[in-house]
What does this fold into?
Amino acid sequence: MSAQAQFSWYAMASHFSERSLGRISSMGGREHDYFGWALIAFVAFAPIPLGSNRPFFWMFNALVVALIGAAYSVSLFRKSVRPRIALSDLGLPVVLFTLAVVWLALQILPLGLLPHPSWINLDGGSGGAISAAPGETFAMLVRYVTYALFFVLAVQVFVNRSRAHRLLNVLFWVAVAESLLALASLYQFGDVLLFFKKTAYEGNATGTFVNRNTFATFSGLGIVIGIALLFGDGLRGNQGRVRWIDLVFGRSGVLTIGMLVIAFGLAVSQSRMGIFVAGAGAVTVLVLSLFRASGARRSVAFVTIAGIVLAGVGLTATGGILFERLWDVDQSADIRMSAYQQTGQLIAQHPWLGSGGGSFKDTFNAVRHLPVSSDVVWDKAHDLYLELSVDLGIPLAICVVLAVLLFAWRCLSTTIRRQESWEIPAASVGATVLVGLHSLVDFSMQIEAVVLFYLTILAAGVAQSTQVRKSSI
It folds into this structure.
């Protein structure tokens, strides 16, 4: 073979090799745009049917996420490409959460190896399974698999920074729309829930959620996104400066108005802990922004302070009942502490294996006594960490919580190190602080629409904090 022929052969081989590598490494940006909008639309509609907190909607949402996942996989296969972020890139949190999912599946199986004798007296028995309520455990398994697949898909579409900013902006306005609907339902339509008469939390803003605390968590997450976007690089102009005209009439001013709407809805929800944790999440992002902010962002800080003052005025004007409730907590606190103590007794019965995912409602009756009244249905422990320990056992409960904390730590490290586009990981940190604190006293993170909303924010931060093979798609 001549030297010229050899050169031509190597050039052609190199050409096709580079094209093949390019196809293997990533999928086009337009396809990721489509999948990104599909996921955001899914998250936007999830709160409408009572926060998707019903078995039918758990299964429906699982089907929707599975279909999106299947379409994404087919797209990857047809183009012979790989995901931008592999499961191995996500690291230890994936292993920890997978262990919890596998354990939920094992709790259902009628192996007859480790059934709890105490479950025999429960309705239907356990059928030889570890779980006291295999049906509820299966439902929890479906939800957790849905969350895992949704998170992995969301991470893929949030890799691109401009797309991440665009989708987070839409997510923020979803929270604004929820607050507007809550205010309209309370003041314009006669205090209704999805245009039907309320049976609980009358006089409180709840939006499309049954519980005011759940609505408050959802709203607080919206405020966290808004503050992150307000202080972030995404609002800088072509010269890298924040202009006063932009603050008043541009994106910054519009963001501030949106946050005021959310803050007003949050105030009239009269959720004590909801307002507190929303403040904690917002302050977390503000503190992080102090490390990243330049002199130009003092203008944005001024607008933020003005917004907080206006929100305080609104709280004073509409929150009289709230202030009364803040002082009138002794009796409910005593009952809550008794419930926690009795939940601790339930954990002590089966600390390693758990009682089965979703089994709290069935098993709590075995230990419940006054002052926790039997006239009230306790289907939640009002502390996610305690309830996870009841459901999964202490080791697997730690796995679930640690998986989330490790992702949040990755986002925090990126926020501190990165010189630009730090606001998306910062929003993830603030959102984690918010839901982490609220989970100590409430069950908002057991409502599917709130979980999906939070996972979208977390996935955005993780995607922006994870090393990928190419800089953009």
Notes: Strands lie at 192-193, 196-197. Residues 340 and 381 are 7 Å apart (CA to CA). The first strand starts at residue 192 and ends at 193.
